[in-house]
From TrEMBL:
The lineage of its organism: Bacteria, Bacillati, Actinomycetota, Actinomycetes, Propionibacteriales. Coiled coil: none annotated. It catalyses: a uridine in RNA = a pseudouridine in RNA. GO terms for molecular function: catalytic activity, acting on RNA; pseudouridine synthase activity; RNA binding. Responsible for synthesis of pseudouridine from uracil. This is Pseudouridine synthase. The active site is at residue 143. InterPro entries: PsdUridine_synth_cat_dom_sf, PsdUridine_synth_RluA-like_CS, PsdUridine_synth_RluC/D, PsdUridine_synth_RsuA/RluA, RluA_PseudoU_synthase, S4_RNA-bd_sf.
Length: 312
């Protein structure tokens, strides 16, 4: 949903005599003061034909003109090829990808960066039309800061079957996480409800009134400063692994949002949490046969792990 730029003009009324341009602009055109200041800063406001400064004073009868830029729906899917997205598998019903860090699965409020659905649109993929417009065909999500394997549905039947499989927890979702310290016990299950943190809309925490959340983990490698875990998700809450490991006081290395050591992150050259979706297994929606797809560690995570392995 995109609208073209709008030109508007009004004569300054007597009641705004002596007011600053930014104040008058907001009142005359029914916009916020901050939007008025932004328009002035972009040179989109003219007073009697000349570019207006926000601190200028208004004179009754003067002509105040403003160009209101085209507005774009933040949830609109923009077809845009994204460097780093790899197609692991592609057939009539599904496409399995390796998602790099820094890419959202679909558009959302406040996100202006690249998306998986935008990349697939640019590459000419036809995606299932079930679901909200900005996330059609999406049956699972990975955080912007989490890389790895994920599946998107191209057909309606595949969408229905896999959505059901995720809902009934018959999909095998396997992650590797490098966490600080050494979890005790070395393998176990975290069964702790997760909800939004009270002081932040974008953070989550373990809380009694949260949603049922279960994470299974086992230690693959134990090193001096960190442990490499294999994690199986039974449920799929936002930030689930990050929140559960932080609750154990073993946050993912590099996950500064959830209490990781910034000094260790810097030493390892990490700018995000060490968390990667390594395997995804499910019954194929067409054949019913069990299929499994894998993703290797990306360079930043592989390098950080090698550094940890070398520190004795």
């Amino acid at each position: 949903m995109t609208s073209s730029a709008e030109e508007r003009a009004l004569l300054v009324p007597e009641g705004l005599a002596g007011e600053r341009v930014d104040t008058g602009l907001a009142r005359m055109f029914g916009i916020s003061r901050s939007r008025a200041a932004d328009l002035l800063g972009q040179g989109l406001v003219r007073l009697d034909g000349s570019a207006a400064a926000k601190s200028e004073r208004l004179v009754p009868g003067s002509l105040l003109e403003v160009t209101l830029p085209a507005t774009t729906d933040p949830l609109e899917v923009r077809a845009e090829a994204v460097e780093g997205i790899t197609i692991i598998h592609d057939d009539e019903s599904i496409v399995v990808i390796d998602k790099p860090v820094g890419v959202a699965v679909h558009p959302s409020m406040g996100w202006t960066g690249p998306t998986v659905v935008g990349h697939l649109a640019a590459a000419g993929y036809r995606i299932a039309t079930s679901g909200a417009p900005e996330r059609q065909g999406i049956v699972q999500r990975l955080d912007v800061g989490t890389s790895g394997v994920m599946v998107i549905c191209k057909g309606e039947r595949a969408y229905s079957v896999l959505k059901n499989a995720f809902r009934h927890r018959t999909v095998d979702k396997v992650y590797h996480a490098l966490v600080q310290g050494h979890p005790d016990p070395w393998e176990g299950t975290i069964d702790a409800p997760i909800g939004r943190a009270t002081k932040s809309d974008w953070k989550f925490t373990v809380r009694d009134d949260g949603k049922h959340s279960v994470t299974h983990y086992s230690t693959l490698e134990a090193h001096r400063f960190a442990s490499l875990l294999e994690v199986h998700l039974e449920t799929g809450r936002t930030h689930q692994i990050r929140v559960h490991m932080a609750a154990l006081k073993h946050p993912c290395v590099g996950d500064l949002t959830y209490g990781a050591d910034p000094t260790l992150a810097r030493r390892l050259g990490l700018e995000r949490q060490w968390l990667h979706a390594v395997r995804l297994g499910f019954e194929h929606p067409d054949t019913g046969q069990y299929v499994e797809y894998e993703s290797e560690y990306p360079p930043d995570l592989a390098a950080a792990l090698e550094t940890i392995r070398d520190e004795h």
